[in-house]
Design goal:
Elements: H1 2-42, H2 54-80, E1 88-91, H3 92-100, E2 114-117, H4 119-136
Antiparallel strand pairs: 1-2
Helix pairs in contact: 1-2, 2-4
C-alpha cells in the first residue's frame, strides 16, 4: 500500500542519515589524525619521540579516510540494490595492510596467501567491525 511505501522510504532515509553522520565522523577523525601528524612532522624532532614517522602516519590516516568514502559508496550501492559482487584474487597481506593503515593495530602474523573474495564488500564489513571493536573495547 501507499502508506507502507512511505514508511519504508522514511525508514530508509533515517538509516541513510545515520550512516552519513557516522561516516562523516569517521572521515573527520581521519582528517584530524592526519592534521595532527603533519603538525608533528613540521616540528623539530624530539629525542624521546617514539614515533618519528609522522608523515607516514598522516598518509595512513588520509588513506583510511579514502577507504571510509569507498565504504560509503559500497554501502549505498548495497542499499540501492545496485551492488555487483566483484570476487577476485586478492593478496591477503596487502588487503590487511590497507585495512590496518592509520590504526594502532598490530597483527602478529598475516599469511602470505592469495584469496578469492570481494575486496570492497569485505573491506566494508571488516572496517566496520574494527571501528566497533576500537570504539567499544
Amino acid at each position: 500500500s501507499e502508506c507502507e511505501d512511505e514508511n519504508t522510504i522514511a525508514q530508509a532515509l533515517e538509516e541513510s542519515a545515520k550512516l552519513a553522520v557516522a561516516q562523516h565522523r569517521s572521515l573527520k577523525e581521519s582528517m584530524v589524525d592526519a592534521t595532527g601528524c603533519l603538525k608533528l612532522f613540521s616540528m623539530p624532532p624530539r629525542e624521546d619521540d617514539a614515533e618519528p614517522d609522522h608523515l607516514k602516519t598522516s598518509q595512513d590516516s588520509l588513506l583510511r579516510g579514502i577507504q571510509a568514502c569507498d565504504n560509503v559508496q559500497t554501502y549505498l550501492r548495497l542499499c540501492a540494490g545496485t551492488y555487483e559482487r566483484a570476487v577476485g584474487q586478492v593478496q591477503l597481506y596487502n588487503f590487511v595492510q590497507k585495512l590496518m593503515a592509520g590504526r594502532r593495530i598490530v597483527a602478529s602474523y598475516i599469511a602470505p596467501l592469495v584469496v578469492r573474495m570481494d575486496p570492497d564488500l569485505c573491506a566494508l564489513v571488516l572496517d566496520n567491525a574494527l571501528a566497533n571493536a576500537v570504539k567499544h573495547a
